[in-house]
Amino acid sequence: MMLTTRPISASRQNMPTMGRQGGAILFVGLILMVALTMLAFTALRTATMQERMAGNVRDRGIAFQAAESALRAAEKYLSVTSAPSSATFNGTACTAKGIYKLNTGVPYFAATNSTFTSGTRWDGSSIDFWNEYPWETTNCSFTGSGDHVTFVASGDVGKAGKPIKLPRYVIEEMPVDGNLLMSYRVTAKGWGSSANTVVILQATYTSQ
Predict the structure, then answer these.
(1) What is the pLDDT of residues 113-146, one digit of tens each?
(2) E strands of the chain, at which residues?
């Protein structure tokens, strides 16, 4: 009987090489997993940011529509009120609700030559003034269905897709125009679903 032998040195030499190859594959796999995880987090963050931006745009739209409705309410008020009362403001409170009448031919706020404690001057054409004006203080603005503001029912305020507060408006008497017609400046404030989302609009109405 003849005994046949075969060399095994080649197989033994390949074993360490296969181990190194397996380690390299594991390392590459881990790198790919980390990269995929980072991509997933980035995609999630981008989607969240886009959703938040869309929500902000929608909320600002609600505030804008609310402010516009207050402008229309003021126009209605002026058209049906023949002898509106005069409003007064002392910097913190309003002792009478109505229209801020001219003072020696000058718009009410500008005529007083006053400032808030912050130093902001009273000026009905200034956004800084209206940002500090006490809109929600009693008698300082018109609001609600009684003042023709019908954008949202009182019971729906604060609900999803509705403003967090009722829109409001303020009316100032302005000097007569060239045709000697009465003119009024209306400033309206609307809120979105968040109290931090605010739109302030101004319009001028001339009586016919």
Answers:
(1) 999 999 999 999 999 999 999 999 999 999 999 9
(2) 99-100, 168-174, 183-191, 198-206
